[in-house]
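User: Hi! Is it possible to get a structure for several chains at once, not just one? Here's what I have:
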Amino acid sequence: MTVGDLSDLKAGGLLKARPTRPLRLVRLGLGAALPWLLPAGLLGLWALSLDRGWLQPYQLPAPPTVVSTFVDLLSRGELARHLGATLNRLLAGYLLGAGPGVLLGLLAGSSVGFRRFLDPTVQGLRAVPSLAWVPLFLLWFGIGEQARVYLIGLGAFLPVYLNTMAAVGSVDRKLIEVARAYGFGRLKVLFRVVLPGAMPGVFTGLRAGLSLAWMFVVAAELIAASNGLGFMLVEGQSTMRPDRVLVSLLTFAVLGRGSDTLLAALERRLLVWRDTLATTQEERP
Amino acid sequence: MGPFGRREFLKLAAGLVGAGLGAACAPAGAPGAGPRRLDVLRLDYAYYNPVSLVMRRKGWLEEEFARDGIKVEWVLSLGSNKANEFTASGTVHFGSTAGSAALLARANGVPLKTVWLYSQPEWTALVTLKDSPIRQVADLRGRRVAATRGTDPWFFLLRALDSAGLGQRDVEIVQLQHPDGEQALLQGQVDAWAGLDPYMAHAELAAGARLFFRQPEWNTYGTLNVQESFLNQYPDIVERVLTVYERGRAWARQNPEELIAILAEESKVSPEVARKVLTERTAFPEPVPGDQLKTVLREIVPLIQKEQLVPVGVDLKAAIEALVESGPARQVLSRSASK
Amino acid sequence: MTGATIRLSRTCVSLGGHPVLRDLYFEAGPGEFVAVVGPSGVGKSTLLRVIARLVEPEAGEVVVRPANGGPQARVAFVFQEPRLLPWLRVLDNVAIVAPAGSDRKERARRALAAVGLGDWERAWPRQLSGGMAQRAALARALVTEPHVLLLDEPFSAVDALTRMRLQEHVLGLWAAGGFTAVLVTHDVDEAVYLADRVYVLMGRPATVAAEFSVGLPRPRLREDPALGRLRREVLGALGPVPLTAGRPDGNLLV
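Assistant: Yes, the chains can be modeled jointly so their relative placement is included. Here is the combined structure:
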């Protein structure tokens, strides 16, 4: 046996022989189909349970009904109207919460004094279960748009602040030392070393903040709203239109997932320098 | 690939799919079996259904069903929308709604049957604050109005808007349950409110609120509903419950002062408010749901279609016929008459 | 660019309440190459940090004066790890410390070319090998045109072959640049091969236990017996070398 000959190892079963072409295609197809198996199964179960009478249409409408309601709402522009209202609120609230979250997290992470000043209060806020804020905000700010945007802002703020602060704290001390060794002033260290170094953690916070913002948008629209996807949910519930409830839920799911995917793509772009398993996996697909 | 290799995974997946298929092919659970024994009877009670408050207080249903060993549970409905939800989901067997709300539910596929009329109320009107500039319905254009979708006050609002040539889109309807709607009006967060008694009367007496639009003829009765399947499975239980409701109705007509006290205590309003509601705006007429109910329901069919409250193509007239069920009530009354 | 004079006299330094350096005396002339050796943790790195003004002494004098009489000596530091900023490409890592001006990138390019990394300007630090990253760190140090170059065990993290190549690199850059170089290392061979003089730091708190002058012309041969003799002398100053780990009478020679 020469050095380059692996036939003995193959025969001994230690190496798998390269699979034949048709087998490879089958495996490829199976791999591509894998993520769709479960949803397809659930969809089938859904249709089946209505067909068999295990569930009634007024409890859970059939998939075709939901689709036709969706198309109907879309064509009448009603879905766009509610969608627009929800997205507006979400964006406004998210920026209102995430912006200060990053800034304050940066400050609290890099200054012990500031942390002692701000953090205990924030930790106290964090202890309040999120949905308990809804009636409080309605009491303080009334039932207008203000209350809703503030609520969403609060939801987004907490994870962004906490993650940013933690990320700042975990910036490699050695990098800060080398920056100081080369004469970087405090501000330059903060913006050229600490902030970029904390970016991975900041993004984790931004994504968590986004998903909480979505949750708070729903909560804010369940009470005293007159438009929005969450409102559509309550409206469908009050007027015995479960198909509208489902359209609302599905739209939420799609939007929620879609917005997270966008943010994740941005994250990958900006953090291409990371030396992690994830980035090396991306390089060698 | 580790101990859980490719082969094992494929076997597991095949197993799951097989189990799923097997379950699907199995015959559906025997539908022809006889009705199971009822262990718990659940009804709703509401501040807009005074007789229910009396029955709950006096414990007459508990008495009636004690000998069968059936427990009785009461659930509070804060509006027709909630009552419909409870009935549709099986949370209660008997739900108290307005006739309009019952029709909406039936038209949207919920198999309800109206078996009793528990009151004939003028329990809703359009309310605004004492010094508000709003004088008539047309003034509501572009304003914020609090209402609970799926309830009679909401229907009333839509009808009122329609009569002034307006539609849902011309006002901003803020979704709030009845008690919260009153609060929103009193705190000035909305310009008007589609009110419901006793909260409405409370607003009048406590804050001098104005009922700027009233239409007693537009009322669609207070209806007691059950699911069709429940009526088919337990017709005797339905009749026994209605018998107790008749007892309550008679008692309410004979004991107005006590009725006022009960309403005041339960809904936590003052006796003056309760008196205003019960003497000025509530009646307990013939409880058998029949042509009188069908007539008022037919009047709101065009409105339902105009505002697209049900899917296109639903036959509302057929829904009305399917909803109204006078049999059990007639039985109960003929029996008590012959006593 | 010529070097600087470094002088420490009677310098005392404490870290975290513990005295690390006591009554320390240290000197390096302009353009000199000085090495500092000693046991692990004795305080060699602290000495460098004092020179770089990253740590302030509690007592004593620290003077770093440019040879050409300028106001402030420029001190560049190369650490044991390359410590490149991972979010900047190699060129930007070097450019960010270059003296302010419009030709930062150009200077950076030249510095990278001098260490043989001209083709890797656009690379991310994570794409470099250990030796390449350390070369980039060297380029970053030199782009500032320092009077003093401080090296804290810069080659301990790379393999033997790379280490030798990097040592030659540093020698070449030092010869061309004329700056004062202070090298901290635990490798005595490296110290005697590279430096003009070798300080030996010992004790807790540490003081200078011995000072050796190498006195050999460059280029030096690693196998030169003179280096070997010097090496033994320096090792002797560091303490007795244990010949066996254990003895028949059961005592461990620590």
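Chain A has a mean pLDDT of 86. Chain A has twelve helices and no strands.

User: Great, thank you!
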